[in-house]
Structure to design on (322 residues):
């Protein structure tokens, strides 16, 4: 027969052993967390800056915490909806202005968060006539909106309110946002850098497409027909024809003379747009400025290279800030 008293005693001993073991493990984990926090807080600022911002949150600054602010950016007859991701610390901070593509389904907000952990402010926005921003959407307005966003972060009142260093503004453009960033940098001047992620030379594409009716129909259908649900006051044909009317002013080639003193970082992917970014990079480099180009074997949304994309942008900005 089974001795129930002995079995019960044995089970009690086992339970006690596991309970004690769990307490020891929890104590070790707790002590490790405390020691890690103390060590991190005690690191010199220069060393803390080298801790990976992609995976490590910075220490909380209770006097000037990181935060998010909704802003409305004036652009001619309307206001653009925007969000400022503000870095911890009193500032002033270098600031990145991020321009999304057409229509803007990929917001790249993981990049905004990563860059903020580096100590940068980030402004994201929706152009006039897109995603609820007032006004109408057009390429002419995109060019104006890019300049308006740059003027907004440079404004004395804005810079003072949000801890922005107006001398250190970097523009980042993704897809058609690259068209916006290039033209804003060329028109307004004085930016500290330009990052282009799968940037599209929309005006040059339209000029190439006009060579045959078939290529033109394909250009309109592939670029605009499936992207109108979030845009106001425009048509696919109207957007395409607008590019033809201004191609000699809005193309990447036209912007090169104004970019020859701007550090440029070009990132390309396997999406068919790499030649456009590479052509701009080669032209700017030939004009005498510093250009870096990297290629990633991924799709237009960088779906399986998000960490790699964050790493590339963060590393380049770190170098640009020095």
């Amino acid at each position: 027969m089974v001795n129930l008293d002995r079995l019960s005693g044995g089970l009690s001993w086992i339970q006690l052993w596991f309970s004690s073991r769990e307490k020891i493990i929890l104590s070790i984990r707790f002590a490790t967390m405390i020691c890690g926090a103390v060590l991190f807080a005690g690191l010199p600022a220069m060393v803390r800056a080298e801790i990976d911002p992609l995976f490590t949150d910075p220490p909380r600054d209770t006097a000037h915490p990181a935060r998010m602010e909704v802003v409305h950016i004036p652009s001619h007859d309307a206001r653009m909806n925007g969000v400022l991701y503000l870095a911890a610390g009193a500032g002033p901070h270098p600031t990145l202005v991020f321009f999304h593509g057409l229509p803007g389904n990929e917001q790249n907000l993981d990049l905004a968060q990563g860059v903020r952990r580096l100590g940068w402010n980030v402004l994201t926005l929706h152009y006039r006539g897109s995603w609820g921003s007032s006004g109408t959407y057009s390429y002419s307005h995109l060019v104006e909106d890019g300049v308006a966003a740059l003027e907004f972060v440079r404004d004395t009142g804005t810079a003072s309110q949000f801890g922005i260093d107006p001398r250190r503004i970097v523009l980042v453009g993704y897809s058609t946002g690259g068209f916006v960033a290039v033209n804003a940098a060329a028109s307004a001047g004085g930016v500290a850098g330009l990052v282009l992620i799968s940037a599209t030379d929309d005006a040059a594409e339209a000029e190439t497409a006009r060579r045959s009716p078939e290529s033109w129909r394909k250009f309109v259908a592939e670029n605009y027909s499936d992207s109108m649900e979030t845009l106001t006051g425009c048509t696919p044909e109207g957007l395409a024809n607008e590019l033809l009317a201004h191609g000699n002013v809005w193309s990447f080639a036209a912007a090169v003379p104004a970019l020859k003193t701007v550090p440029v970082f070009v990132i390309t992917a396997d999406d068919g747009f790499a030649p456009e970014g590479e052509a701009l990079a080669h032209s700017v480099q030939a004009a005498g400025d510093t250009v870096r180009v990297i290629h990633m074997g991924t799709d237009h949304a960088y779906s399986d290279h998000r960490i790699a994309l964050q790493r590339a942008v963060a590393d380049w900005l770190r170098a640009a800030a020095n």
In short: The domain at 67-321 is CATH 3.40.50.1820 (Rossmann fold). Strands lie at 67-75, 78-86, 93-99, 121-125, 164-174, 193-197, 264-269, 291-296. The chain has two domains: 4-42, 67-321. Residues 4-49 have pLDDT under 50 and may be disordered.
